[in-house]
Design brief:
Three copies of one chain form a homotrimer.
Chain A: H1 9-14, H2 24-28, H3 30-41, E1 46-50, E2 59-65, E3 68-74, E4 80-84, E5 99-101, E6 105-106, E7 113-114, E8 120-122, E9 141-145, E10 148-152, H4 161-165, H5 169-173, E11 180-187, H6 194-201, H7 207-210, H8 212-217, H9 220-226, H10 235-255, E12 260-261, E13 272-278, E14 306-312, E15 316-320, E16 325-334, E17 337-347, H11 358-383, H12 398-414
Antiparallel strand pairs in A: 1-10, 2-3, 2-5, 3-4, 6-7, 7-8, 9-10, 11-17, 12-13, 13-14, 14-15, 15-16, 16-17
Helix pairs in contact in A: 3-12, 6-12, 9-10
Amino acid sequence: MARANGVDLYTLIKDHTDGFSMDKAFYLEPDVFEADLERVIIPAWHLVDHISRIPDPGDYFLFELADESIIVIRGRDGEIRAFYNVCRHRGSRICREAQGNVRLLRCPYHAWSYDLDGSLKAARLMSDDFNADDYSLHACHIEVCEGLIFVNLTQGTPPDFHEQMAPMLSFLEVHGLPNAKIGHRASYPTEANWKLVMENFYECYHCLPAHPEYCEVHPKDYVLALGGGEGSGPIESLIDYQPQLDAFNKLADSMGHPSGRSEEEENTPFLRGASRTGIKPGYLSETRDGTPAAPLMGKFNDWDGGYTGVTLNPFFTMLATNDFATLFRFIPRDAVYTDVELIWLVHADAEEGKNLDTAKMIWMWDETTIADKTIIEDNHAGVLSRKYQPGPYSRHEAGTNEFVRWYLDRLTETA
Amino acid sequence: MARANGVDLYTLIKDHTDGFSMDKAFYLEPDVFEADLERVIIPAWHLVDHISRIPDPGDYFLFELADESIIVIRGRDGEIRAFYNVCRHRGSRICREAQGNVRLLRCPYHAWSYDLDGSLKAARLMSDDFNADDYSLHACHIEVCEGLIFVNLTQGTPPDFHEQMAPMLSFLEVHGLPNAKIGHRASYPTEANWKLVMENFYECYHCLPAHPEYCEVHPKDYVLALGGGEGSGPIESLIDYQPQLDAFNKLADSMGHPSGRSEEEENTPFLRGASRTGIKPGYLSETRDGTPAAPLMGKFNDWDGGYTGVTLNPFFTMLATNDFATLFRFIPRDAVYTDVELIWLVHADAEEGKNLDTAKMIWMWDETTIADKTIIEDNHAGVLSRKYQPGPYSRHEAGTNEFVRWYLDRLTETA
Amino acid sequence: MARANGVDLYTLIKDHTDGFSMDKAFYLEPDVFEADLERVIIPAWHLVDHISRIPDPGDYFLFELADESIIVIRGRDGEIRAFYNVCRHRGSRICREAQGNVRLLRCPYHAWSYDLDGSLKAARLMSDDFNADDYSLHACHIEVCEGLIFVNLTQGTPPDFHEQMAPMLSFLEVHGLPNAKIGHRASYPTEANWKLVMENFYECYHCLPAHPEYCEVHPKDYVLALGGGEGSGPIESLIDYQPQLDAFNKLADSMGHPSGRSEEEENTPFLRGASRTGIKPGYLSETRDGTPAAPLMGKFNDWDGGYTGVTLNPFFTMLATNDFATLFRFIPRDAVYTDVELIWLVHADAEEGKNLDTAKMIWMWDETTIADKTIIEDNHAGVLSRKYQPGPYSRHEAGTNEFVRWYLDRLTETA
C-alpha cells in the first residue's frame, strides 16, 4: 500500500539523517529484510540455549532461524554439536520433535542413519559408487561459552566468536553460568520489524511513561543515565548518577566483584558491551520488594546489589543480578515479525518453594516485555502511514541512535 | 493463477467494450488496485460517521483506510478535527482504542503529548534546537455536512467538497440529520474487489431473483425503472412508472417536501445524484408492513411515503424514508476485499420500545446486504476463471454501465 | 528466504543430474509452479469422481482445480457433461453448493438460466441484438471411462484420452467399475509441492521404515521389487520375487484373469502403466488379516489374491484387489500445497454390516496416506534449507527417478 516501492538501498542509506529514526522502507520492505538477513542476521552469533537443556548424550533440541532448522545435540563424548536438520538423501527433516533424546539421528523417511557426530552410518541399497563419507550431516558453526550455546549460520567461515566476546568475558564469568540451570522461559512474538524491537531495547526514554515495573526497581537517575545501556542517556543525567555509580563501584571493588565496564576501541564493527551498575539502593535483586528470588550464583559470596549487562551484536543480551540472569534472545522472522524469547537462569541448586520464587523472579521483565510488545506493534502500525517520516531522537535515545549507526554501517560495508 | 499478468492499464482501458463488464484484471490485480487507490479511492471524500458519535470535547474515534488510521476528535472549542494517528517522534500510533475520550493526545510510547487541536505540548529531553511548532500532528482533510463527517486522504489539496455536494444539499437538509442519532450499525465484510460491490449496488436487475425483501416494500415498476438509481432501468419501465412518480411528486410538492431529482450538467467528473421517489403505495416507511419504525425526522411534519437517495462519488449513499436514513459506506481494503458498513440514523428523540423499533427498521437493508455479500463473493469466484470474459449488461443495468464509464474516465484522465 | 530467486527454468533443467532429487527451486518457486500448471497440470486428464455420485438427471457436483470450478452434471438424456461454473453474463458462480440436483442451471445473481446441456434458456431484458446462442455455458473437456469421470482443462484441443488409456484398459475392465459404488472417501491435504508427493508415491524405499501397515499385507520381496510400481526396485529384488510372480501369473491365467503388465513402447510422452501382481501369499484382500472386506467385483468369479495397479499421467492411480478398488487423486493447489484424495469403490450391491466392512477396507491406505502426509511435509521443510542439495536416489527409487525424467521432459518439450 503506502510502502516505498523500488527500494534502492544505497539511496535509502545515503538519505538517512543521523539522529532521526529511519525511512519506513527499513521497517517494512521484504527486500530490505533480505539484505538484513544476508548482512546482519546470518553473520551474527545467536544464543540458542543453555547447556543444561541437553545434559546427557543424545539429548537434542531444535533451533529455527531463517528457514533453517538446526539440531543442537550432545554427543557420546559429551561435546555439544550442531547440524542442519536436513537429510543428505532427499532433504527430509530428520528430527521432528522440538527436543528429545536419540541414539542415532535416523531419518524417518528412508532410514538413513547418522551417528551423533553427524557421520552417515547406514543407507540401504545405494549404488556401488556411493561413498558414505561424502554424506555426513552438514555441520553448523557452534560455540559454547560460559554455559551458553551460540550458533552461526554463515555458509563459509563465520566471524570469530572469541574475538567478539573477549572484552565481556570477565563480566559473564562471575555469574557462574556453567553451573546454572533454566528457571523459566517465555516467548513474546512481536509483529514488527526486528529493528523496531532493537530500537525499543536500546533506549529507556519510554521507561517512565510505559514501564512502571522497571521504574520501581531502578532509581530514576539510573533510568535516565543508563537505562538503555552505556551512553544511552543525556550527559547531565550521567553526572547526576555518578555519585551512586561511584558508591557501587567502591562496594563491588571491596568485595572483589567486577565493576565498571568493558573496554572498547574506537570503530569496531561490534555492537557489544558489558558493564556493572547498581540497582535501587537497598535492593538486593531486580524484584518488586528488592529481596532475592534465588540463591547467590557463581563467584558471588555476598550480595552487592549489582546489575550486570552483557550485549552481543545485537541479538543477545544478558541482564543479571547476584541471584539470577535474564537472557534476551531476538530472532527476526520476516520483515514484519520478530520472536523475542527470555530465559531466566538460576543456580543449579535452586529449588522452587525452597530457595527459588519463579513468579517473583520473572515479574519485572515479563511485565515489561509484554508492554514492549504492544508498544512496538503500535510503532509498526504507525510506520505504515503515508504521513510517517523519520522523527528526531531525544537526548535520551542515544543508544538507539548508536544501534542505527551500527546497523547502517553493516549494510554499507558490504553494500 | 489464471490472473492477467503484466497488466498494462492503458491497454486494458482501451480494450474495454462499453456495455460489458470489465476485464478480470480490473477485479483481481493488485497493480490495478494500486491505481484505484491513487486515482479514485484516495481522492474521494469518505463518510466516516455521524457527529453524534462524538458529542463531547475530547471524544474521538478511529477511521481506517488505505494503511492509515485517522483520529476524528472533537476539540475543546466543539470543532471536529481529524489527524493522522502517527506520532511525530518515531511514528507510533497515538490512540490504541477504536474510540474514547481524552484530555490530551498522549503517545503511549514516549509520552509526546498533543493538544486536541494537534499542536505538540510536551516532548521531554529534546535537543536545544528542537522546535515543537514543527511537530504538530499531521491534519487530515475533514468536512462536516448536515451532521455527517467526511474525510479525504489526498496528500495535497483535495477536491472541493462543497462543489461536489452542492446539487444534493436540499435533498439532504430536509432529513434533519444534524439533529439525528445513530440507531444501529452493521458491517458486511465482502471478499471481492470494490468495483464488483459497486456494480452490484448500481443495478436492480438482480433484485427480483435475489432480493425478495426489497421487492416486498418497493413496487415492481419502481424496481424496474429506478431500483438501481436514476437512469438504471429500461425506458419502457420509466414510462410505466411515470404515473406513480407524478402522483408522488404532486403529493410531495403539496406538502412542501422536496421532489424530483438534483440537476446535473453534462460531463462532470462526479458520480453523484439525489432524488425523491415513492415507496410502495400505502407504505409510510421501508418496513415489512409499511408502518413507521421511528418518529418523523427533520422538516417532515407528516408522512409523504417518499424515499430520498443521495449518492457521492461513489463510496457514500444515503437512502431515507421520513422516519430513518440508511447510510452506506463502502471501504475498499485490497484488490479482493471490501468493507461495507451500514449506519441507520433516527431522530435524536427516538427511543427503543417507545417510538423506535430497531429490528423493524433494519430488516430490509440488513437482509438485502447479507444476500449481496454472497452474490458478490460468488461473482468474484467466477471472475477468477480462465473462461471468464466480459459479458453484456442488460437494459436493466444502465446504472452499472454508468459507474464503469465513470471509473474508467477517472483512470484515463490521470493515466 | 533461502529460496532460489530469479529462476531460469532452462538452467535449472540443464543443471539437473539424473539419479538425484531436484533443485529446491522445483519444489518451492511459484514461477516453476506456473510452468507446471501450463505444461503438466492443465494438459493432464484428471479423475474427478465415479459416475455413481450423480446417478439421476440434474445431479451435479463441483470439481475445483487451478482457480476453476467445474460443474459435472448428468443431463436429462443421461449423459454426463462438464461446464465451467461461470455465468456468461457477469461471471458469477452458478452453482454454490458442492453437490446437488437441479432442473436448470440458474445463476443466483440475475437469474440467467441454462439447460442441463449448457444452452442459455432465459436472460431477461437484454438488448434486441442479443443472441442467446452466443452465450451457452463454456463446456469443459470430459471423458467417462469404465465408470470413472475425467476432465481436462486444456483451453484448446486436449490430448487424446483414449490413446492415453488404451494399453491399460483391459486391466481396468475386469474390475467392473461401471457397476460399482463409492464405499468411502477421504482427504489428505499435504503442505508440500506436488512433485514431492509424486516422488513419495513412486518409490517404496520408505515403506520398510515408514509403513508397517503396508509391509504387513505385502510380502517383503514384493515391496523391494515392485512396491513403487513397475521398475521401481533393484534388479536382484526382481529376480528374488520372480518365482512368486510366476506363480501368481499362472494362477491368474488359469482363472482367466488378467496378468502381467501393459505393453509400452519406448519414449512415449506418457507416465502410465498397468499391471497385476499378487498380494501376500494366503491373503485374499489388502486387509489386516487378508480376508475380504467386500464382495467380489466385476468379472472375478473367485479370489485370485491379485493386485491391479493402473496409473495415468501421473495424477490418477487405481490400486485394486478382487473386492475393492482404491482410487488416488492428486490435485496440485499451489507451489507448496497439494490435495490428496482417496476414493474406495466396491460392488454396487455391497452393504455395510452385511458384506462390506468399510473400516477394514480403508485401514491400510488410510494409515499409509496419513503417514505419507507427515513424511512429505517433513521433506518440504528440509528442502527450504540453504544446505539442501539434490541427493542420490537409491537403487530402490528407480520409479521416482523415472517420474523426474518424465516431468523434466514435459518441461523441456515445451520450454
